[in-house]
């Protein structure tokens, strides 16, 4: 079973990827894709917040 640190690291990696994809989708005007990615983004952001991760400096989306 993964430790809390391993789970947090995986969530941070996913958070970074989702943000990159969201920025690309927004740039390309892919609104449906952006909306779906935003759902994932908000879920991971909530998980990281509950885990006590400070997202101030790493959150590129700021929504």
SSE blueprint:
Layout: H1 4-28, H2 31-50
Helix pairs in contact: 1-2
Characteristic key phrases:
mainly alpha; 71% helix; 63 residues; elongated
Task: Tell me what the structure shows.
The protein has one domain (4-50). 71% of the residues lie in helices and 0% in strands. The chain has helices at residues 4-28, 31-50. Helix 1 runs antiparallel to helix 2. It starts with a helix and ends in a 13-residue tail after the last helix.
> How many separate domains make up the residues?
1
The number of E-state strands comes to 0
Kindly state the percentage of residues in helix: over 70%
Sequence stretches where pLDDT stays below 50 over 5 or more residues = none
Q: How would you concisely characterize the structure shown here?
A:
With 63 residues, this protein is an all-alpha fold. It has helices at residues 4-28, 31-50. Helix 1 (4-28) runs antiparallel to helix 2 (31-50).
